[in-house]
Specification:
Length: 350
């Protein structure tokens, strides 16, 4: 028996506690793992029973997997909720300096709604698996994996809190604290506070208390998600409407491509020979690989084309399925005026 073993045997016979011995020997430079191993040998000899087999690394990996899934999906649907409400705040409090594209914002909201619909149920299932595991193994309440991820989540949440408050104070001092910015700051604080409360109030609880806390959090989160989905769908509309708007965007892109092509052909022609084509079908001739679409992608009908009798002005027309989200274009037959001598706008004609 080595020096450490002889000392532990004598100390245990004298009535020293395990905690005291571990701390005492750590101060003497002995690693805690070595001390615990020596204590395990002493207890094996004293009880006549061998130590239980080490915990399976596969079981630890499974626990880490569920914790990471819960942690990751929580971040996904929380951020998606914030993104949807940011867009709704922009929609409800328009800013004349905001040049964000309405179609782009609608597509972004659709993606965020999809993220919420997918991530939240996965989060609930992963959390239930963790709670079931803790109920079957109460010692996992203080799991190292759970504590580590909880501390990471709290660190991220605290950073968001501090960053958001700094931004609010800085913007206030600059005299630019608008209603839009203040509302977005409150959204960030509210969501970060929810995550902070989830981890601080749920950490360390076991049994019924943990299950009850997670159930309450899931119910509150579900209510917020329902409100978010209602707001999001009121902005984007139904999937059928989104399909119609996508078709209209394609029509707008086609008309813009035709206008660019007519401008390029006008510039490429000798000054005394410049003239508009009699029909859009003529654009397919001598295109040098730059063929443009001059028919409606849904109906197959040619786009409307009305060149002026003389000069470089003309109109391009299409039948749109719905009014544009920005209200600049009605549904139905709609024409746009262009000048082949001038470069057309590169903004989508939605």
């Amino acid at each position: 028996m080595d020096e450490l073993g002889r000392f532990l045997r004598a100390a245990k016979q004298a009535g020293a506690s395990d905690g005291f011995l571990v701390e005492l020997l750590k101060q003497q430079g002995w690693p805690a793992r070595t001390v615990y191993a020596a204590l395990g040998s002493w207890y094996e000899e004293a009880t006549g029973e061998g130590l239980p087999a080490p915990r399976s690394t596969l079981e630890a990996a499974r626990e880490a997997f569920y914790h990471l899934v819960a942690f990751g999906t929580l971040g996904v649907w929380i951020c998606a909720i914030g993104s949807v409400w940011f867009t709704m705040i922009d929609f409800w409090t328009p800013d004349v300096l905001d040049r964000a594209s309405v179609p782009w914002a609608m597509r972004q909201v659709s993606w965020q709604i999809a993220a919420i619909v997918v991530a939240f149920p996965v989060f609930v299932m992963a959390t239930r698996s963790i709670l079931a595991d803790v109920a079957a193994n109460p010692d996992k309440t203080a799991s190292a994996v759970g504590r580590w991820l909880t501390n990471v989540a709290l660190l991220i949440t605290a950073s968001v809190f501090i960053g958001d408050l700094v931004a609010v104070v800085a913007v206030f001092l600059e005299g630019e604290l608008t209603r839009r910015f203040f509302a977005k700051a409150m959204v960030v604080l509210g969501l970060a506070g929810a995550v902070f409360a989830y981890y601080t109030q749920g950490a360390g609880k076991d049994g019924r208390r943990a299950k009850a806390w997670h159930s309450r959090f899931a119910m509150l989160a579900g209510g917020l998600i329902v409100a978010t989905l209602v707001a999001g769908f009121s902005y984007t509309g139904t999937p059928e409407r989104q399909r119609i708007l996508a078709e209209d965007r394609r029509r707008g892109e086609d008309l813009l491509a035709i206008a660019r092509r007519l401008h390029e052909d006008w510039k490429a022609s000798p000054e005394g020979e410049r003239k508009l084509p009699a029909a859009l079908s003529a654009l397919d001739e001598n295109a040098a690989g730059r063929t443009v679409r001059w028919k409606d992608p849904v109906t197959g009908a040619p786009y409307g084309y009305q060149p002026a009798p003389q000069g470089s002005t003309y109109q391009l027309c299409a039948v749109y399925g719905a009014a544009s989200p920005n209200g600049r274009r009605p549904a139905g037959w709609y024409c746009l005026s262009f000048d082949a001598a001038k470069a057309p706008s590169y903004e989508p004609l939605d």
